[in-house]
Design brief:
Elements: E1 2-5, H1 12-22, E2 30-33, H2 44-56, E3 60-63, H3 67-77, H4 81-88, H5 92-98, H6 104-107, H7 117-124, E4 129-131, E5 135-138, H8 153-158, E6 173-176, H9 183-192, E7 197-199, E8 214-219, E9 225-229
Parallel strand pairs: 1-2, 2-3, 5-6, 6-7
Antiparallel strand pairs: 1-8, 4-5, 8-9
Helix pairs in contact: 3-4
């Protein structure tokens, strides 16, 4: 089976249960992740540890880069106040605290030197998309209005209005996250197959908001949707 999981945002307990008990991932399966593993939720460190451990244990896991990984990498590689502030304004405090890094209020971007090198290397190596025979896995979308859509990396992690061009994507359906959407809407659109792209971000970290607060996966072959309410808070 081939599964894709939406934005996790530090919700480790929810992610682990979805993988192990709901979809029951085996080593014969393939698991694709659309990015945003960090920020806003309580345990970004454990989310990254878990993904890395699954890969190390021989599971076929293919994570792509989200805009929150992009902000973290930018804040680390170019430790300017602007880059660090942008990341902090988007939930970075929760990520730093998950690593027991409390010096950010004093050191600013320099506190990022306390992040483990293994996690930084993992994040730096994340691809922007995965191209399958029938699907494209990406965080936000592909900008087919660009002359070179597969090099427009900024759109891949940030765009909210990118539309699939089935001719330019060679008939591939795009599966993405990035924009929190009520689970009922995703189930409706998936059932009707009205779109050439599928959004599976059901806003796990936004528990308490109408229709969100779920972590969702889709089976790419059957289009069956699996979802779990946030267990982390």
């Amino acid at each position: 089976m081939r599964f894709v999981v939406g934005d996790i945002h530090g919700c480790y307990k929810t992610f682990k249960k979805l993988v192990e008990e709901i979809i029951q991932l085996s080593k014969d399966d393939k698991l694709y992740l659309v990015g945003d593993y960090v920020d806003r939720g309580p345990d970004s460190k454990s989310v990254l540890d878990y993904i890395i451990n699954l890969i190390d244990e021989g599971y076929s896991v293919f994570p792509v880069r989200g805009n929150h990984e992009e902000m973290l990498i930018d804040a680390y590689t170019n430790q300017s106040p602007d880059n660090f502030m942008l990341w902090m304004m988007n939930g970075a405090e929760k990520t730093l605290l998950s690593y027991n890094i409390e010096s950010y209020s004093v050191l600013g971007s320099a506190c990022m030197n306390e992040l483990p090198e293994s996690h930084l290397s993992f994040l730096k190596e994340l691809p922007y998309y995965v191209l399958l025979d029938d699907y494209i896995i990406v965080h936000a979308g592909i900008n087919f209005e660009d002359d070179n859509p597969f090099t427009d990396y900024r759109s891949m992690v940030w765009c909210r209005d990118c539309k699939n061009d089935m001719k330019k994507s060679d008939g591939r359906i795009i599966v993405h996250g990035h924009t929190p959407t009520p689970l009922a809407n995703i189930e409706r659109d998936n059932f009707a197959l009205v779109e050439s792209q599928i959004n599976i971000d059901t806003g796990c970290v936004y528990k308490g908001y109408p229709g969100t607060g779920n972590l969702t996966a889709i089976d790419l072959d059957s289009h069956k949707i699996y979802s779990l309410k946030n267990l982390d808070f």
